[in-house]
Amino acid sequence: MNLDLIAPEVIQRLAGSLLHFVWQGAVIALLTAVGLRLLRHRSAESRYAFAIVSLVCMLAAPLFTLAFYSQTGAVAQRLILALNLVAEGRTASASLATSLWAQRILLAWFAGVIVFATRLIVGWRLSWRLVHSAEEILVPGVMKIFDSVRERLGLRGPIRLLAHAHLDSPVVVGWLRPVVLLPVSLISGFTTEQLSAIFAHELAHIRRHDFVVNILQRCVESILFYHPAVWWLSKRIRAEREHCCDDIAIRLCGSRKVYAEALIEMERARQPRPILAVAAADGIVLQRFRRVLGMSSSVVDWQSAVGTLVFLGVWLIVGMWQSAGALQATPAVAVKPAVAVAPTPVATSVNAIAAILTAQPVAEPALPVQGPVQSPAQAGNPKGSIQGVVTRAGTSEPIPGAYVAITNAPFDPDALSILLKFWAQRGVTMNPQEPGQSDEKYFQALMDAIAAKGISTSLPENQISIMQFRGMNTQRYSAQADANGRFTIKDVAPGQYTLEAEQSGFFDIPGRQALASVDPAKPANVSVGLLAGGTITGRVKNAAGKLLPNANVTAYKITYINGKIVPEAQSSQSTDDRGEYRMFWLPPGDYVVLADPPSYPLSNPGNAPAAGGPRGGAPPQGPMSTPQFMRTFYPRSLTTQDAGIIAVKSGDQLSGMDITVQKATTYKITGELHAPLYTGTAPPPARGRGGRGANADPNAPQRIQGFLGLEYRDPSVIDMRSTNLGGTVPAVGTFFLTSGEDGFRATFEVRDVLPGEYYLVPRVNNAVPAGPGIFGINRIPVDIRDRDIMGLAIELVPSQIVTGILTIDGHAPGNVTVRVAIGAVGNPSPTYQGISARAVVANPDDGTLTIGNAAQTRYRLETVAGPPDLYVSDLRVGAISAFDSGFEVGKEPLPPLQISLRSGAGTVEGIVRDSANRPIANAMIVVVPPEARRENRVLYKTATSDAAGKFTVRGIAPGSYKVFAFEGLAGGEFYNSRFLSKYESRGKSINVGQGGTTTESLTIIESN
Hints:
Elements: H1 8-38, H2 44-68, H3 72-82, H4 94-133, E1 135-136, H5 140-152, E2 160-164, E3 171-173, E4 179-183, H6 184-189, H7 192-207, H8 210-223, H9 228-253, H10 256-267, E5 278-279, H11 285-292, H12 302-321, H13 345-358, H14 376-380, E6 384-392, E7 403-406, H15 413-424, H16 439-452, H17 460-476, E8 478-480, E9 486-492, E10 495-502, E11 506-508, E12 514-518, E13 524-532, E14 534-541, E15 552-561, E16 564-574, E17 580-586, E18 589-596, E19 628-629, E20 632-633, E21 646-648, E22 653-654, E23 659-660, E24 663-664, E25 667-676, E26 703-712, E27 731-740, E28 743-753, E29 756-765, E30 775-777, E31 780-784, E32 789-795, E33 800-808, E34 819-824, H18 830-836, E35 840-841, E36 848-854, E37 857-865, E38 870-877, E39 880-881, E40 887-889, E41 897-903, E42 906-913, E43 924-928, E44 941-944, E45 950-956, E46 959-966, H19 977-980, E47 988-992, E48 997-1003
Parallel strand pairs: 2-4, 6-13, 14-22, 14-23, 25-32, 33-41, 42-48
Antiparallel strand pairs: 1-2, 3-4, 3-5, 6-9, 7-8, 7-10, 10-12, 11-13, 14-17, 15-16, 15-18, 18-20, 18-21, 19-24, 25-28, 26-27, 26-29, 27-28, 29-30, 29-31, 33-36, 34-35, 34-37, 37-40, 38-39, 38-41, 42-45, 43-44, 43-46, 46-47
Helix pairs in contact: 1-2, 1-3, 1-4, 1-9, 2-9, 3-4, 3-13, 4-8, 5-7, 7-9, 7-10, 8-9, 9-12, 10-11, 12-13, 15-17
C-alpha cells in the first residue's frame, strides 16, 4: 500500500491513535473486569449488556483519540526516541524516522485488518454454504416440537429448520431470514425434552438478534486485532450470550437437569463450525454445565490477562527506562520555567510515563495544595452517600456479600438513548428529555406514545428492552456488602431513594423496601432486611404405595399479574432412587407442587398447562381407552382447583410433602376452522412447503400456519403455563389453512384432554382473512365430560378496532388528560392481556378514542386514569349499559363506546398500623366494590401509605365498598376472588358519598 499520498501528520496521528489504544484498551478491560465482578450476582442479561457497552467503548476510544486529540502524532515520535531508534549518524532527523516508523505501524495494522476481514468473509461464505447444502426436515415430531417452542417464544417471522449431515451441534445462521441447522444425529439421538431445550436455546439467539451482534463483534476484532484485551472481552461476551440463551431455555423447559443433559450430549460429538454461526454448544461447556446446575462457574482467563499485562509492561518499562529525562518532546504550548524543586525518582517516572501516554511536556511536581480541590461542577452539585447493613429479617445477623442497589435511581442517559433507539426502530419517536423534566413523567409519555401506535409492551422483546433499561439505571448506584454485611453507595444526588438487596438463598421482604433520604451534609444510614429461603421435601409414589424414582417434581410459586394467578417455576428436580425430592432456597410465599411420573412425556413443565389441559410432548396415537398415570399436584389432585397450597415462610423446613400420582382417562377435540374472505390487502406469503416463494407455482393453493391452544374458563383455576417469556396460549398443536374459493379452511385435532371447562383458542398471525386486525383469534367454549367432542365448526374472526367517545360532565375533556384501557373478562391468555396494556388518551377536542387490534371475546373497562376528582359513572354500548357486564367484540364492528365521567369523586383517608399499633409505611390500601360488582375494574381504587402510615385514596365513585390494607402486593392480587376470599372478614365496610371524605383506621394484613 502506497502511503505517500497521505500527509505525514495524518499518518502519525493514525499510528499514535493505535498506540494510544494499548493503554486505553487495558484500562477499559480492567474497569470491565471490575464491573463484571460486581455484577456476578446479577442476571446474565445485565452482564452481557455491560460487556457490549465496554466493547463499544474500546472501538470508540481510538476514534475519539484520532478525532479530538491533536497530539497523537507525538506519541509515535516519543516511543521511537525512548527506544533509541534515532541514533546519531543513523538518520538525519528524528521527524523523518518517526514518519517512517509511523508508516510501518500503519501498514502492519492494515495488513492485520485485511487478514481478519478475509477470515470474516470466508466464515460468511462457509456459513451459507452449509445452509444451501442442508436438507429440509420431514419428521413431523421434530417440526412439532420446533413450532411449539417457537410459538412460546413469540417468534413470528419465517424461520427455517434444516438438517445437515456434517454438523455435530445445532447452529443459527442469518438475521432477516434466520436458519436453524440441526445435526442429523439430533433427530433420533435426543429425547423430546432435550430437543425442546436445544430449540429454545437456538431460537433465543434469533429472538435476541445475536447473529447481528456476533458479526459486529467480529468486525471490532478485525479492527483492533492487536490488543489481547479485545479478544478477552469478546470471549466474555460470547460466554454471557450463551448464558442468556441458557437462562431462556431453562425458563422455557423448566428443568435444569434436562438442559444440562442436552449440553453434555452435544459436547460429546463437537467439531469446528463456521465462525459466524451461533450455537448451543458455544462457550466453555464445563463452565456452562456447572452454571446450569447452580454450581460455581468462575473461570480465570490467564492467557488474556497475561497478554494485557505484557502490553502495559512495555509502556511501564519505557517510562522507567527514560525517567532520567532522556525523553524530550516539543511541547504543544510554551512551558514556564520549572520551579527548582528536586523531583523524587517515583514522581519523575510517573511524569515520564504520562508524557508517553499523553504526548504532553514532562512537568515538574507541583507544590502541595492544602485541602481538597473541587471542580466548579462538583462544587455546584454536591453529592451524598448511602451506607448501611444487610441483615436477616427480624434479627441482627449480617448477610455478607449481598448486592445492594438503588431501584429508583435517575435515568442513565446512555440507557435512555438505547431505549429510545429501540422504540424508534418500531416507529415510536420521542423528543429529548428536557432539563428538570421528571424521569417517570418522561417514561409515561413514552408508554403513551407506544400505546398510541397500538403496540403491546407485553411482547417478549419489548419487555426485555424495558427491563434492560431499568437494569442499566440500577447498576449506576450499587454496592456489595462486606463480611459484616456493611455497604456504601457513593456519589448519590440528594433525594428520596428505595433500595433492594440480593443474595443467594435470601429474598426481599414484600412491601418493606428500605428507604433512604440523601443529604450531602451527612451519609444516609439504612438497614436492609432479607428473608431466608425455605425448603420443601417429600416423596412421590403411586396409589399402591410404590415409591417412584426419576419422577420430575416442580415447585411453582403463586404470583399474580393483574389479578390473574400465574405460577412461577422456582425449582425442578427428579426424585432419587428412594423416590425422594428436596427443593431449597425457595422464596417465601404460597406454592403448588406437582409431580410428573417417570413415563410422562413432558417436553416443558414450565410452560405446559396444568392437568386438565393438554399435556406436553408427543401425544399418544388414538384416544385413550384405559386410565393412564398423569401429572399430579400435591397431595393427589389432577387439577389445581383441588391442589394443596403449601405456605412457605422464611427459613421453613417443610417435610413430608408426599405426592401420590393419579390415573385418568383423556379425550380429544376435532373440527374444522374456516376463515372466510374479507376485504383488505392480501395476506403475506406462508411459511412452509405450500407457501408462495419466488419460484412457487402462483396457481398452487396458499397455506397459512396457525396455532391451537386451550385455556381454563374458570379464572380461579391456576393456569400452569409460564409467562416469563411472554408466551401466548399454551400450544397443543398447529394447523395449516389452505386457500379455496370461499376462503381458507383447516381441520384440527386436539388429543389428550382431561375432563373440564375450557376455551379452545385458534390463532393466526397476520390475519387471513385480511380484515381490520393483524391477527385472527377466537375463544370457543368447550366442555369435556366423558366423551370426545367431534365436528366443531369454528370461524376465525379478525381482530377489530374499538372506538369510543369520552365525556366529562357531558362535555369533551378539553385540557383534561384521561387514559382508557380495556381488558378481557375471565382467565385471558397473554395474547389478550397485552390489550389491557395499551392505554390510549382521549382526544381533548371531542373525546374520541381508538383501541386497535381487539381480538374476539368479552371485554370490560380496565382502567380510566384522569384527575382524582373524577369518577366513571357509566359505560354504554348503544342504548345498553355495559359498565358492570362488559361488552362483546365479535365479527361485526362494535358501536362506539360511550364513557361518562362525572366530577365529585369521593375520598377515603386514614392511617395504617400493625398489631402493636405502630404506623406502617408502603402499605397497599385497596378500596373494593361489593361482590356483585367485582368484575368492574374501574371501581377498584388503591393508594400507598407514607412513612407515617397515612394514606389518601381518591377518585372513588359514590357507593358501598370494603377497604383493606395489604403488605407486599405487586400484581393486583385483590382482583382475584380466590385471593380476596381469604381476607374478606378483615376488610372494613364503608359508604362513600358524592364528593365526601371517609376516615378509617386500618390494621395491616401481613404477607408471609
